């Protein structure tokens, strides 16, 4: 599969598995799973074509590990980042002392005033490594790396989850837990 097709298909999968399954009338269950055959058929009806082998390649090679198959590869879902309501059956986890959040420079003042909000997603996303967080921040302008005092947040009773692709998730980050690098 060529890289351009791979990227286009991955973006399409993000749209229908995380945000708008109704675009292709895809059935997504309460845990976020969609049938692979139905996904292929309904995608093809909308002029998006991929084979099971190509889908497997996307799942395996996506740099952010956005997608996962069930054990027999009959179902697929996004690991996190949903704006639709799904129950990923995540269990509370104790985070490391510090995690990182990348954002664009023009968002910093608002974040320092209001905190980091999940907005239209189910959770705020945090990274355990600075490089990944910086890449996320780069998508929207000049990146700024924020250090989040997650150990203190956890100590204060705030719940964290760790997704299948190692993204840390929480509901909100109050400004009092944010440090600018």
From TrEMBL:
Enzyme Commission identifier(s): 2.7.1.-
Main EC class the enzyme belongs to: transferase
A Pfam family per the record: PTS_2-RNA
Domain of life (superkingdom): Bacteria
Keywords, alphabetical: NAD, Transferase
Database matches in InterPro entries: Ptrans_KptA/Tpt1 (IPR002745), RNA_2'-PTrans_C (IPR042081), RNA_2'-PTrans_KptA (IPR022928), RNA_2'-PTrans_N (IPR042080)
Record keyword Amino-acid biosynthesis present: no
HAMAP family according to UniProt: KptA
PANTHER family, per the entry: PUTATIVE PHOSPHOTRANSFERASE (PTHR12684), TRNA 2'-PHOSPHOTRANSFERASE 1 (PTHR12684:SF2)
Protein family membership: Belongs to the KptA/TPT1 family.
Protein name, UniProt field: Probable RNA 2'-phosphotransferase
Organism: Chryseobacterium salviniae
Protein encoded by which gene: kptA
């Amino acid at each position: 599969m060529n890289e351009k097709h791979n990227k286009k298909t991955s973006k399409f999968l993000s749209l229908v598995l995380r945000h708008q399954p109704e675009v292709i009338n895809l059935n997504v269950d309460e845990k976020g799973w969609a049938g692979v055959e139905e996904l292929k058929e309904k995608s093809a009806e909308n002029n998006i074509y991929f084979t099971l082998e190509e889908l497997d390649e996307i799942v395996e090679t996506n740099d952010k590990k956005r997608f996962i198959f069930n054990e027999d590869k009959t179902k697929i879902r996004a690991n996190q980042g949903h704006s639709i309501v799904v129950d990923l059956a995540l269990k509370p986890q104790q985070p490391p002392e510090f995690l990182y959040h990348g954002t664009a420079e023009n968002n910093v003042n608002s974040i320092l005033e209001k905190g980091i909000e999940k907005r239209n997603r189910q959770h705020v996303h945090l990274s355990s490594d600075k490089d990944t967080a910086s890449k996320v921040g780069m998508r929207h302008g000049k990146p700024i790396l924020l250090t989040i005092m997650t150990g203190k947040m956890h100590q204060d009773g705030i719940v964290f989850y760790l997704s299948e692709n190692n993204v840390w998730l929480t509901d909100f980050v109050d400004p009092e837990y944010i440090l600018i690098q």
